[in-house]
Hints:
Elements: H1 6-13, E1 20-23, H2 28-35, E2 46-52, E3 55-65, E4 76-86, E5 92-100, H3 109-134, H4 146-163, H5 169-175, H6 179-185
Antiparallel strand pairs: 1-5, 2-3, 3-4, 4-5
Amino acid sequence: MHTVRANPDWLVTTKNAHYVAVVKANQPLLRARLARLPWVDIPTAEITRDHGHGRDETRTLKAATVGFLDFPHAVQAVRIIRWRRVKGRRPSRQTVYVITDHPAETASPALLAAHARRHWHVENKVHYVRDVSFAEDASTLRTGNIPTNLATLRSAVINRLRQAGYRFIPPGRRDHTTPTAALDLHGFP
């Protein structure tokens, strides 16, 4: 929902705020435009390395000033390549594209990298669980308030299952498939 064109436009024009948006597959034309930028010619702005939880990760960030992305107020594009090696698994590589209305003078590569990392933290904690447990990304309901309302209901179920002591959501859903069990979970007699 962050790369829905109305959201960043509203932030910039109405709230006088900035945005940093991760571009995913739900914006295929924008993602393709970003992939076609001359990244080979752009110098690396920042490399960060982390080691922990049995994993080594290297993130390489490149940033470019742009003016032709056909996205509201976008003036800077970022490409982050994440190389990850988890103990006992094959190494993986992921390319992430980010756009922002922050000009290069006010948003350093370190700041943009920090914003992108915060996004991944939220993505892993909230959206990933909703997608895996409820196949949220596969939903074709995209008009009006329907997506927001369904996301709210899914989050309520996930939070209630966690309060009931379930560390993982799928077993909690399996244990509460009947109407009676679902009502009992939510405290209805």
